[in-house]
From TrEMBL:
Region listing for Disordered, in residue ranges: 199-273
Protein name as it appears in the record: Uncharacterized protein
Positions with biased composition (Acidic residues): 214-240, 256-273
């Protein structure tokens, strides 16, 4: 999920969210460029903690061709930190893979595709959506619209049914066989929402406080009648338990085939919740 038309990231603009947008060579470039700044040493640990959100970083203690080759064989890229005019430090860096559902976080869920997500779910022992913990489901639904259905395999792709409609609507699908039935998990990426960061200006805030204090001192406050203790005889707006309706929610339909008589009538698609 690459981001286009954006200003190039630097160490100072990296966050635990956007660090997933870059690759090893990008971090090496940022680190080598940032190490020339006068305040680099004071902020280096902060930058490193952000980078470690998405990357494995190791300092190279023994800088020899043999050691560097071992790192490269393990998929690491090699970079250099400038410590002083006469001293530098090599480091190895590798992007953390997202292979298991436990690798998913709120920071990286918006940085993988729907097909990648379903690939990760498929590795979860083939248990389907309900086999995922509630916390993992919450993370996934933070970045994706998810729908599920479980039907007899012969009915899953019925023309005009849920399966066909979801594919037409741009969803990716994962099929999980369950005997003569199949669970289908549909996933579609939610639009990325850009967050606007406000720069805090303490001088402006102090000036606003002074202005409000001046206004308060120049104006007399009106009398406000106290109506809180009056009896309210109007029961039209009173809370009524009978008016409550059950909150709608989505669930996976998973029915024991032995409990159904499929021969009695055609099996229709499950409703999408």
């Amino acid at each position: 999920m690459a981001i286009s038309n954006k200003k190039a990231l630097t160490l100072k603009t990296l966050t635990k969210g956007n660090v997933w947008d870059v690759q090893e060579n990008d971090i090496i470039r940022m680190w080598e460029t940032g190490s020339k700044d006068s305040d680099f040493k004071d902020s280096a640990n902060h930058y490193r903690e952000i980078i470690k959100t998405a990357f494995t970083v190791e300092d190279i203690k023994v800088d020899t061709p043999e050691v560097l080759k071992k790192y490269e064989d393990r998929g690491f890229k090699i970079g250099t930190i400038r410590i002083s005019d006469k001293e530098s430090q090599r480091f190895a860096i590798k992007k953390k893979p997202i292979q298991r559902v436990t690798d998913l976080t709120y920071e990286n869920i918006n940085h993988i595709s729907a097909s990648k997500l379903l690939e990760v779910i498929e590795r979860n022992f083939g248990g389907g959506w309900e086999s995922l913990s509630q916390s993992i489901q919450d993370i996934i639904e933070h970045g994706f619209d998810i729908s599920t259905t479980t039907l007899p395999t012969t009915m899953l792709k019925k023309k005009g049914g849920m399966y066909e409609k979801k594919l037409d609507d741009g969803y990716e699908v994962l099929e999980i066989p369950k005997g003569t039935w199949t669970e289908a998990i549909f996933a579609k990426e939610k639009p990325r929402v850009e967050r606007v960061h406000t720069v805090f200006d303490p001088d402006a805030e102090d000036e606003e406080k002074r202005r409000l204090e001046d206004e308060d001192s120049d104006e007399d406050l009106p009398d406000i009648p106290d109506n809180y203790n009056e009896d309210d005889d109007d029961d039209d707006d009173a809370f009524d338990d009978d008016k409550l309706t059950e909150e709608s929610y989505r669930t996976t339909v998973d029915t024991n085939p032995e409990d159904l008589d499929l021969s009695a009538a055609d099996v229709a698609d499950d409703e999408e919740f």
